[in-house]
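Hey L., structure's done. Input below.
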Amino acid sequence: MKIMVVDDELLSVELLKEVLKEMGYDVVVFSNGLDALSFLKNNGECRIVITDWEMPDMDGLELCRQIRDWSRGSYIYIIMLTSRGGTASVVEGLEAGADDFMSKPFHPAELAVRIQSARRVMSLEASNMALFALARLAERREPGTHGHLERVRDMSQELAKMVMERKLFGGRVGDDFVEDIYLAAPLHDIGMLQVPEHIITQVGSLSEAQQKEMQEHTLLGAKALGDVVEDALEVGFLKMARDIILCHHERFDGSGYPKGIAGDRIPLAARIVGIADAYSALLSPRSYRHALTPQEAFATIEQGGGSQFDSRLVTLFSELAND
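Output:
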């Protein structure tokens, strides 16, 4: 693993390089945030960044903000190295996007522990990527759905952000919800892995019995994830994923499946993903229809407001679709 050090103090840089190389890491060094950010965007090799707070051109605080605003792929773990003390500085750094802090001058043993913590976060992300790979397997069983997971993930997160910013639904949507739905949304159809191949690939309409078997993917997926959720209660996005898998085909008027629940009884995350999933699916061709244009797909979503979908979310989605 390659670690980035961003610091304009030569002595500090040399000490960090020496300790990190003894720990077996490659080290890339920059003296300001602008050059560091440019390298990250163009190379993408560094997953851990150790940055000083006070630097010329772009300080460590702004570098944190820029990394968080830009990064949409693998998570970058940021350790802020600073001589500043006090709760106010810690809060300011965390709000900017830092994950951890070390005081100057640092102790090599402390640095080793901080890096170990960063590696644990990287390991957790690797587990998330494995789940995404399983979701990709489910997606590829159905022809014509390339890019569906990414569209559902991104649109769901954008909708959740709009809910948070406008303090809708009682203001209970925060940063954690927005982050969790980004991870959870791609798992919505993971139960399709257990649906027979001949049903998924059948040309033309399904029989009533086949439709019922297809609808079982919500129950099958939720059951498969259920044991994982019980063993990993601290991983919030897994609980959200189970709710989404089970309920993303429920309808706001109660005529959906598998339980026929209605309105606010449907988990908010499932209502959000339900819109994103339906819109993305309409953009893909099926054996019984051609792919719709974005305008046609949105018109279909709009028509479903109040019956299939939560009309409050459809209103937000209209802004998102027209941006």
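The first strand starts at residue 2 and ends at 6. The beta strands are 2-6, 26-30, 46-52, 77-82, 100-103.

-- N.
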